[in-house]
Amino acid sequence: MQIGLIGLQNSGKTTLFNTVSMNSGESNRTVVRVPDTRLDELTKLFNPKKQINATLEIIDIPGLQLSDEGKVKITNDFLSKVKNNDALFHIVRQFENESVPHPEGVVDVIRDIQFLETEFLLSDMTLIENRLEKIQKEIQKTKNEQVQREFPVFKKLQEHIETELPLRDLVFDENERRVLSGYQFLTLKPLLIGINFDENSKNSVDKILEEIKLSFPNSNFLIIPFFGQFEFELSQLSEEESSIFMSDFGITESALNRILRTLYQLLGLQSFFTVGEDECRAWTIKVNNTAQEAAGAIHSDFYAKFIRAEVVHYDEYMKYGSFTKCKEAGVWRLEGKEYLVKDGDILNIRHS
Fold first, then answer.
1. pLDDT band of 23, cuts 50, 70, 90
2. In angstroms, rounded to a whole number, what is the distance separating the alpha carbons of residues 57 and 80?
3. Of 91, 102, 213, 345, which residue is least crowded by CB atoms under 10 Å?
4. Class of domain 121-187
């Protein structure tokens, strides 16, 4: 799953990318581990040769540039790069720094969020109108069932987007999702907005977040505050030094960890675990995937040759401390291929 990191010039977007990638080089693509304290605890218990976390791929999409007239410009190249992602993480600047000027001259969080939301709405509106025009021409010429199925779905999109609200607000049934699966609508992509504060504005975080929620009451995106420069400095420290640094700052966890977990959940992903002497591993599947689909995530052969899944949830395992005690307590069980795997399940797949 791929996350597109977007934002205006000088928003702190690339600083955040360098923080998550532990790299200040030229590459704009990185694969990052999703922090999971449950997996950490299982590793302590099983002491395996290796621990393998779930991962996300993050793409740093080049910052939007100013035109000759001094206005931020949206290019087709930028839009095409944004479309290729499964979700978007929009970095919005709230910090003041005279040596790093804001491209619009003044810091304004609401304006910057609205700018990209509007551009993405216009892009989607154009795509919908063009497709509807082609559908209507096709319907006049042919009885193509696929095209006829598309028409009511695209009319639904058009009616909604003309109210200037993003498509992610809409609810789709399975047939509508199937129709839309080949299209890359920008306002349909899951969106996380990260507000980049400086350390001097800690006391204004709640106020700014409330203003954003009031300004975008129906936009259906998630918001997360963070302190970009602080996170970057934190990433350069040893584990012991970072604990002291966070304690001095009055926090118990890096915002980076919360950001990565939020992005994972935003994509509708969850983790199940496999454990043993060789490795403790978090496997990524979609929410509501079955035990057979989870088996397929481990190996394609396991999907075809699935028999049963031995299942115990992480919380139950930590409560009783061993598989034997879990069996005695009745929380270890065998499940069939239709079982819906829960986030935090520990699985052992039986296959032929």
1. low
2. 18
3. 213
4. mainly alpha
- Class of CATH domain 288-351: alpha beta
- 179-207 pLDDT, tens digit per residue, is 898 899 999 999 999 999 988 888 889 99
What CA–CA distance (Å, rounded) separates 31 from 40?
A: 19
Continuous segment of H or E residues that includes residue 79: helix 76-83
Q: State the architecture of 2-107+189-266 in CATH terms.
A: 3-Layer(aba) Sandwich (3.40)
Q: What are φ and ψ of residue 98, in 5° steps?
A: -65, -30
Q: What is the pLDDT of residues 223-246, one digit of tens each?
A: 999 998 888 888 888 888 888 888
Return d(Cα 89, Cα 194) in angstroms, integer: 7
Question: Is there a contact between 66 and 9 (Cβ–Cβ < 8 Å)?
Answer: yes
Q: What is the pTM of this model?
A: 0.87
DSSP secondary structure letter of residue 290: B
pLDDT band at 293 (very low <50, low <70, confident <90, very high): very high
The answer to whether 282 and 48 have CB atoms below 8 angstroms apart is no
H or E, element range at 271: strand 269-274
